[in-house]
Amino acid sequence: METNERQDGAESPGIERRPRVRRNVTAAIAQDICAERYPSGSPLPRENDLCQLYGVSRTVIRESLKVLESKGLVRGKPRIGTTVCDRDDWNILDADVLDWIGPYIKDFDLLGCILEARRTIEPAAAEYAAERASAQEIADLDKAWRQMRDSAGDPESFTDADVMFHTVLLTASHNQVFRRLSSAIHAALKYALHASNIGVENREDAVLVHGQLVEALRMRDKTGARDCANRMLDLAVRDLAAAEKAIGRTK
Fold first, then answer.
1. Which backbone phi and psi does 83 adopt, to 5 degrees?
2. Most buried in the list 5, 19, 110, 179, measured by CB within 10 Å?
3. What is the pLDDT of residues 82-96, one digit of tens each?
4. What is the pLDDT of residues 11-34, one digit of tens each?
């Protein structure tokens, strides 16, 4: 998004200009909302004040507010202005919103909520996949598992492969609702898996149980597949606890 600087450099009296951590003004405003500089239910500063606070033109501010409104963070009304929405209205499954929440994610208990959703969905998806997965889907899961195994020392690459594994697993359930959920929670799943993957130094346990799940699907072992999914989630509980401690230390 364009972030042209204002040329006049003028500031209204009493306005504390906000330094931009990033050039993306949308992210800067969003992060101030997440930090409760602008609490839920409160109005944002007037448009002209926002221009001076963030050092950009009115066009950029208007575009940024449109983006934030589309993601549920703010709501604009004629003759009233722009108000910060309640956190319950935010689209927390959006990749940008997850990124903006960032250091404050522990306050949202979002990692725990994602884990609860996975506890509900993934064991059933694994059981269905053991019965319904095509040979190609099992091959895709095996490929993702091998990428996890081969990148166990690289958290970023490991997470990419891990996300692919779980995405394919939900698709392989051949349950239309699970497939749609896979798309909906993709960004959140990536965030949660990344958090858990950087929370531990040793990923061998995760690699092992993912490989066992692939084998259970090959054998069409529904009970074994469900058991593997539950064990994966038990590891996620352990790893997320380590991740949340790290977040707490760096917040």
1. -115, 145
2. 110
3. 999 999 999 988 888
4. 444 444 444 433 589 999 999 999
**pLDDT (mean) for 210-216:** 98
pTM of structure = 0.73
HEC states along the chain? CCCCECCCCCCCCCCCCCCCCCCCHHHHHHHHHHCCCCCCCCECCCHHHHHHHHCECHHHHHHHHHHHHHCCCEEEECCCEEEECCHHHCCCCCHHHHHHHHHHHHHHCHHHHHHHHHHHHHHHHHHHHHHHCCHHHHHHHHHHHHHHHHCCCCHHHHHHHHHHHHHHHHHHCCCHHHHHHHHHCHHHHHHHHHHHHHCCCCCHHHHHHHHHHHHHHHCCCHHHHHHHHHHHHHHHHHHHHHHHHHHHHHC
Calpha distance 13→2 (Å, rounded) = 27
Round to whole Å and give the CA distance between 8 and 117.
50
Domains and CATH numbers, the chain: 23-87 (1.10.10.10), 108-247 (1.20.120.530)
What is the average pLDDT score of the chain?
85
| Rounded Cα–Cα distance for residues 84 and 11 (Å) | 24
CA atoms within 13 A on the CB side of 38: 20
